[in-house]
Specification:
The complex is a heterodimer of chains A (about 240) and B (about 325). Chain A is about 40% helix and about 25% strand. With about 240 residues, chain A is of the alpha/beta class. Chain A has a six-stranded mixed β-sheet with strand order 6-7-8-3-9-10, with helices on both faces. A four-stranded antiparallel β-sheet of chain A has the order 2-1-4-5, covered by helices on one side. In chain A, a hairpin with a 2-residue loop joins strand 9 and strand 10. In chain A, helix 3 packs parallel to helix 5 and helix 4 packs across helix 5. Chain A starts with a strand and ends in a 5-residue tail after the last helix. The relative contact order of chain A is 0.17. Chain B is mainly alpha-helical. A two-stranded antiparallel sheet of chain B has the order 1-2. In chain B, helix 2 packs across helix 11. Chain B is globular and about 70 Å long.
Chain lengths: ~240, ~325
């Protein structure tokens, strides 16, 4: 039994199938990557998994239990959370308070316990010096780390990372990759990563699925996927396939 | 940034002010005492609005609906069931709150202006129901546009204390919200509701709870006001101006702060009273100008602006 499994999941916006009959499995402890051109349904699929939208067809199973149609906070309590493509810190709160929210509501900790725990996660992502800064005042790179710390504070089993490295410099990307490997290896958290930076997603994922126009067109190791004609066609056009 | 609210100095100050307020009716009577009770009421109402709009970010234009429900519940209980005032007061709060749950659950799914419009419609609909039900259903319950006359109540001292107690309770709740886990969930909803949900906040539950707390106290204020003025009509107690006054007072004082309602509520009540007494024909114009000036030059309200200045001073 797979840890997280999608069975023929579809999501329509009007007549448009944003996600169409997608199957995938995610094993405990692995890092799964997902790539695809813009508008191929990656973010929508993530939103369906965490319950922002219920799937119109199909099912999502977590440890064998059907979680489709549950609300995001319920799914977070079960152990799946997501960081967003567009960073959304609670801007008027400090970095510490942002992460405390994750502990208090994701994990159900008391205020003081959540504060204690939050400091550990902030330290882990390397933001200790900004502890009492309003989160609206820190750089984009730091906000991305903050998103990660807040997700970690919910003490999840699976984190979905939606373009967590967008807008970062190559050097910053290396640091984040290092951090994500630690999250995976040391904390034992399963990762599902959507990324446009090929070097990052190819480097970190053990397995990759490729979406195009809402459908899964390929699946396999980074090397296999990179050679797949369907994938090359989706990215570069027919001529190069 | 630990805020030391419960420092020794603050506690001493608090008890001093409390003592002054409690013994004041021994020295102050009539108009001035009535004025103070009115200020307490407006601070309290504004604080109710601040809980849902200031902390949670849901701009409620139907708050007067709960005020009106509270008024009518007490009026009906006291005249028809011959109940005493204090139990009716509690019933008013409970019934207002029990309206807030079924109204809040669907409307709090709406965002921004849509929530404002839906709540406005709720308050107006309540007014029409109370106004027309008797005529339509051929009964004599709400009294239609004639309203209800309540038994004559005790003097101003009594209402001074009741209004103060209610205001005190709302402020205590606000202070608790400011510092509690629940308050953090409201602030998270205000800032980024989708993210709050993703990291585990049951947003619908939190919003509905805030809305219900607000309605509970609004109902009790409505009840007290009804007994105080002894005569209510749908047009008085469901008047949209009551809501607008709460909005303006919160904006003047500062949204989402503990002190905001206190400053905004007392400032506007006192200013409008002074202006009304001096410039009977032009006071509305003058009041409008003052509100405009404050909103333009202090967009964060009086409390927010002062706080900003203090922080600036510390930095330089």
């Amino acid at each position: 039994m797979a840890f997280l499994e999608a069975k023929k999941v579809s999501k329509f916006f009007g007549a448009l199938a944003a996600v169409s009959e997608i199957d995938f499995t995610l094993e405990k402890g692995e890092i799964l990557g997902m790539i695809g051109p813009n508008g191929s349904g990656k973010t929508t699929l993530f939103n369906v998994i965490v319950g922002v939208y219920p799937p119109d067809r199909g099912k999502i199973l977590f440890s064998g239990k059907d979680i489709s149609g549950k609300k995001p906070h319920k799914i977070c309590h079960l152990g799946i959370t997501k960081t967003s493509q567009i960073v959304q810190p609670f801007t008027s709160m400090t970095v510490l308070e942002n992460v405390m929210i994750g502990g208090m509501f994701g994990k159900g900790l008391t205020l003081s316990k959540a504060k204690e725990k939050a400091k550990e996660f902030i330290d882990f992502v390397g933001l200790s010096k900004y502890l009492d800064e309003p989160s609206g005042k820190i750089t984009v790179a730091s906000r991305r780390r903050l998103e990660l710390a807040r997700a970690l504070a919910t003490e999840p089993e699976i984190i979905l990372l939606d373009e967590n490295m967008a807008g970062l410099t190559p050097w910053e990307i290396d640091e984040v990759l290092e951090l994500l490997r630690k999250v995976n290896k040391d904390m034992g958290i399963t990762l599902f990563v959507v990324e446009h930076v090929m070097r990052a997603v190819m480097g970190i994922s053990e397995r990759i699925i490729v979406l195009n126009y809402g459908e899964k067109i390929a699946e396999g190791s980074p090397e296999e996927v990179a050679k797949d004609p369907a994938v090359i066609e989706a990215y570069l056009g027919e001529k190069y396939a | 940034m630990e805020k030391k609210i419960f420092s020794k100095r603050n506690i001493t100050l608090f008890f001093l002010i409390l003592a002054i307020i409690l013994i004041l009716p021994l020295f102050v009577h009539g108009y001035l005492l009535r004025m103070l009770a009115l200020i307490f009421m407006w601070i309290g109402l504004t604080a109710c609005w601040n809980i849902i709009a200031g902390y949670t970010g849901y701009i409620d234009f139907g708050s007067v609906g709960y005020f009106g429900i509270g008024s009518y519940v007490t009026a009906i209980l006291m005249t028809k069931a011959k109940m005493a005032f204090l139990p009716s007061l509690v019933f008013s709060g409970i019934i207002s709150a029990s309206f807030a749950i079924p109204i809040g659950i669907p409307t709090l799914r709406l965002r921004g202006a849509y929530f404002g419009i839906a709540t406005l419609a709720f308050a107006e609909a309540m007014k029409q129901v109370v106004l027309e039900l008797d005529r339509v259903a051929h009964i004599n319950f709400f009294g239609g546009s004639h309203g209800i006359t309540l038994p004559i109540g005790p003097g101003n001292e009594f209402f001074y204390y009741v209004m103060f107690t209610l205001m005190f309770m709302v402020m205590a709740v606000t202070l608790w919200i400011e510092r509690s886990r629940f308050g953090y969930s409201l602030k998270a909803i205000h800032e980024a509701e989708n993210t709050a949900e993703l990291v585990g906040v049951n947003t619908l539950f939190a919003k509905t709870t805030a809305y219900t707390i607000s309605a509970f106290f609004l109902g009790m204020f409505g009840a007290t006001e009804a007994y105080w003025v002894t005569y209510i009509t749908p047009n008085d107690v469901f008047n949209i101006h009551v809501t607008i006054q709460m909005v303006i007072m919160t904006l003047l004082g500062g949204m989402g702060t503990v002190m905001g309602p206190i400053v905004g509520g007392s400032f506007l009540t006192i200013i409008s009273e002074i202006l009304w007494a001096r410039f009977i024909y032009t006071y509305m114009i003058l009041l409008g100008i003052i509100i405009l000036i404050v909103i333009i030059f202090m967009p964060k309200g009086i409390v927010g602006t002062i706080r900003g200045l203090v922080i600036k001073k510390k930095v330089t």
